[in-house]
Amino acid sequence: MNSTSAKPDVYCLMGPSASGKTALAVDLVARLPFQIISADSAQVYRGMDIGTGKPGAAILEIAPHRLIDIMDPSQAYSAADFRQDAMKEIAEVITQGDIPLLVGGTMLYFKVLRDGLAEMPNADSGIRREIEALAVEQGWEAVHRQLARVDPESAARIHPNDPQRLQRALEVFMVSGKSMTDYHREEQQMLQQSDDSLPFTLHFFAIQPPDRKQLHHRITQRFLAMLDNGLVDEVRALYNRDDLHPQLPSIKSVGYRQVWQHLAGDLDYDAMVEKSIIATRQLAKRQLTWLRSWQNLQGLDGPSANAIDSVLKYVDSTSI
Questions:
Q1: Cβ distance 222 to 228 under 8 Å?
Q2: 297 has which bridge partners?
Q3: What angle do CA 37, 39, 43 make, to 5 degrees?
Q4: How far apart are CA 163 and CA 143, in angstroms?
Q5: Is the pTM above the cut of 0.85?
């Protein structure tokens, strides 16, 4: 319980891909009555286990994870869906007398949990096809240039090699006539007007590896291990389904997109491996960029004994 208010405490553990978030979270569960709530946009999907780094059965028996395996890959799952589900899971954990611990690398999920989410327009399949056609014809750089004309702030924030976020930002403007930046400003106004709107107090930790080369090495080794563990066969099972296609958010996930392209004959095996590793490094870079601007963040070097002690001391300091 937070010492400065009657609100219960909720802890969030963030970090880039392959930084050791799950290992640290499982160790924390062994020390305190935490319950883990996943904040990972790919781990929500059933049948996507190896490539998402989803914890195995042995770990889940020790430290069950909420909000994994809740969606079929044919379905879309939005940040708004996550916020609604996370609020429900947090309330349930608190009711059971335990401490919620949100763990993941989908930074947008943590942001919408903290700040709320303005009512953005729903996805429009026609507009999405129009944007995808532009990308096929002229490349995602052309989509990025078009976004820069209507929403320069979002274009500055979103990398040209991040098609999913590019598509959504441009779609929002094309559907509503209002930029995603405008919606984000509305969110900030909502937050300022209702600082106490959340029924709990959020505390943020992040693993921020000081050595970028070491993180890149971990990313490479982890992806190679995923291949050894059967990632291609896992994606092949998805590829062989009649209801899945490469424009779905699930199949756009890092690693899955590249293996899908390999199975479609667009990439040979070596190119698939190289592009998957590069895409994961780019994702990690974006995740670290989010973390650098995160307010009131408790930084951790990695899933070490020192990191565990730092978290436990902080938790103790926020408790009565």
A1: no
A2: 204
A3: 95
A4: 9
A5: no
Tokens at residue 312, please? 């436990």
Angle at 71 between CA 273 and CA 101, to 5 degrees: 85
φ, ψ for residue 45 (rounded to 5)? -90, 135
Q: In the numeric block, which tokens belong to residue 174?
A: 């094309």
Quick one: pLDDT at residue 195? 47
Domain with CATH 1.10.20.140 in the chain: 125-187
Q: Which of 196, 201, 205 is nearest to 314 (CA)?
A: 205
Q: Are 23 and 231 in contact (CB under 8 A)?
A: no
Q: Give the span between the Cα atoms of 140 and 20, in whole angstroms.
A: 32
Q: What is the mean pLDDT of the chain?
A: 92
pLDDT of 125-156, one tens digit each?
889 999 999 999 999 999 999 999 999 999 99
Among residues 78, 105, 100, the alpha carbon closest in space to that of 89 is found at 100
**Sequence ranges of the chain with CATH classification 3.40.50.300:** 9-118+188-318
Q: What 8-state DSSP symbol labels residue 121?
A: P
Task: Please name the residue ranges forming H helices in the chain.
Answer: 21-31, 57-62, 79-95, 107-115, 125-138, 140-150, 152-157, 163-176, 180-193, 212-228, 231-239, 256-263, 269-292, 305-318
Q: Does 1.10.10.10 match the CATH number of domain 125-187?
A: no
256-263 vs 231-239: helix crossing angle, rounded to 10: 70
Residue 190 has pLDDT above 70, yes or no: no
**Yes or no: domain 9-118+188-318 corresponds to CATH 3.40.50.300:** yes
All residues at 6 or more sequence positions from 152 whose CB lies less than 8 Å from its CB, including other chains: none
Rg (the chain; Cα; Å): 20
Q: Residue 308: helix, strand or coil by DSSP? A: helix
